Amino acid sequence: MSDLRIDTMIPGLSAEAPEAVTRAEALGFDAAWTSETDRDGLLPHPLVAEHTHDIDMGTRITLAFTRSPMVLAYDAWDLQRYSEGRFSLGMGTQVKGHNERRFSVDFDSPGPRLREVVESLRHIWDVFAGRRDRLDYDGDFYSFSLMTETFDPGPIDYPDPEIHIAGVNEYNIRLAGELCDGLCMHAFNTPEYATEVIAPLIEEGATRADRSRADIELSASPFVVTGEDEQEREASREEARRRLAFYGSTRTYHDVLAHHGWAEVGRELHELSTEQRWEEMTELVSDEMLVAFAIEVPPAELLAEARDVYGGVADRIVLPLEHGAALVNS
Length: 330
Hints:
The protein has 14 helices and 13 strands. With about 325 residues, it is an alpha/beta fold.
């Protein structure tokens, strides 16, 4: 499908980031996203805005609970102004262990907590934009009631930043349909799961708010196995197996495996991970699983295959920047 938008990921704040995003725009990618793993997801975007003109930009994803929603609101508002309306805020919860043990923040009731992050962001932006007279959000997890003129950045000449959330469990997927502009589907996902599980849940959430599926963007970021020769493809294949084994060992993602009849594989992967038997884990990722989760084609065929597999399933897809020239040539 020609209307499937093609996006890519760029590095975090680094000397390489400006060159990467300039190249992404020159190659015709529709958006450049940053993740938040070993670097801050928001910091690169002033550079992105400075070095580009038209490409969309945003986080895929930044962590929702490690900053106050007020901090997120200020940051996204500033970036939307500075990028002249090209920024969108993609957020995710991460998992319990990372929140509690890496960031030392609360993780109880993550679904309802994420709902309040989204609601409070909208509320705060209404105050910034002058659509609401005073700040008075009061939830179970967050309360905001103080905003004087000194601390109010005021309106911007662009729409509010879009809010996209990552969702794996049913609650968060419905939440995306109900309150958000889009859902960032996890890489540990298949076209079948997206069609048979995610899309109906998005519809359910949208119905609650008198919205339609067309109001919510679905973004896919599948595993890609490719290379110019068999040696490169085999290395790419093994990296995909390694990442599939890692995600498959996390119980948060086991619903996807269970949907395909691989629940026992998930249990075995989790058990091996608790014993740090990493090499053995990749051996459990079968060729059948690789086919289900990954797009595997030569670089010149990647764009066509992405459109064949995800056209009608997603509205956007993230593909590797390193194969951008091949995508353009195809």
